[in-house]
Write a structure and sequence with these properties.
Layout: E1 2-3, E2 6-18, E3 24-37, E4 39-44, E5 52-58, H1 69-80, E6 86-92, H2 102-117, H3 124-134, H4 138-143, E7 147-151, E8 155-158, E9 167-172, H5 179-184, H6 195-199, H7 206-209, H8 215-221, H9 223-234, E10 239-242, E11 249-253, E12 267-272
Parallel strand pairs: 5-6
Antiparallel strand pairs: 1-4, 2-3, 3-7, 4-6, 7-8, 9-11, 9-12, 10-11
Helix pairs in contact: 1-2, 2-3, 8-9
Length: 273
């Protein structure tokens, strides 16, 4: 079975409060970007000596095997119901540590694919609970449609938002942002107006009202990321923001954007929604 874990962007991100368990409550819109995706192949292979064999190409993942979300996904289901031995190969195309949810998508899509290969042992509600064990934004990728995320990001409510006809430009400068440190440097505070109300206004109003609370701390330490957002608006973006805790910045354009020499050395992707 071959599946295509896709990226996401956050449109608006309010860090509401710190929690007693060390996590933070947030309010954000998760929006899938299905044109930027990894390739994950999972097959049953009875000849294997180990329960799961994992190989990887493309952008290298810098983590120990026990922290690999695809392997964790297999183990989570295997702990509930013994699984056949499986072989996984991931071709990584989504930048890592970039605020695009690539690792979370891989884990969530692995959960869904493994469950299907095993005969749909687990229902969607259980899959969502298992996905949360993988990571805070993994449950979103089980649904993979625009959703308002609250709590750690796992409390999801579908939200109707169509950006059809707009272009999205994603630029990642290759700067790894530690999400934990970004949270530690933030100042949690609920917005006066809820995110649903803000997103229902015309997109032309978003630059003034729809913010990402991570930007202040991240931009102060990494001016390059701030300069990319500024460049987006210079190129005519209707709206631009950092996704998640960065370092990817995206711009929403009415016309296809032109990449000049200042940005051409970075990873970039233009998609028509």
């Amino acid at each position: 079975m071959i599946v295509y874990p896709n990226a996401k962007i956050n449109i608006g991100l309010n860090i509401v409060e710190r929690r007693n368990d060390g996590y933070h409550n947030i309010s954000t819109l998760f929006y899938p970007v299905k044109e930027l995706k990894d390739i994950l192949e999972i097959t049953i292979d009875d000849s294997l000596q180990e329960p799961i064999t994992f190989t990887q190409t493309g952008i290298q993942i810098d983590c120990a095997p026990e922290n690999n979300l695809c392997i964790k996904a297999y183990n989570l289901i295997n702990n509930i119901q013994p699984l056949p031995t499986m072989r996984m190969h991931l071709h990584k195309l989504i930048p890592t540590g970039a605020g695009l949810g690539g690792g979370s998508a891989d884990g969530a899509f692995a959960l869904k694919a493994i469950n299907e290969l095993a005969g749909n042992l687990i229902d969607t509600k259980q899959l969502m609970n298992l996905a949360l064990e993988l990571g805070s934004d993994c449950p979103f990728f089980i649904q993979n449609t625009p959703c308002i995320g609250r709590g750690r990001g796992e409390i999801l409510e579908p939200f109707e938002l169509s950006l059809n006809g707009y272009y999205i430009l994603l630029i990642n400068p290759g700067i790894h942002i530690n999400t934990g440190k970004a949270y530690a440097q933030s100042t949690p505070k609920p917005w006066e107006t809820n995110i649903e109300t803000l997103l229902k206004t015309d997109i032309a109003n978003w630059p003034s009202n729809v913010k990402n609370d991570f930007e202040r701390a991240v931009f102060s330490q990494h001016p390059t990321i701030s300069s990319i957002k500024k460049w987006m608006y210079e190129q005519g973006a209707t709206y631009a923001a950092m996704s998640g805790s960065g370092s990817t910045v995206y711009g929403i354009f009415k016309k296809i954007p032109v990449i000049d020499n200042r940005m051409s050395n970075y990873f970039y992707k233009v998609v028509l929604l």
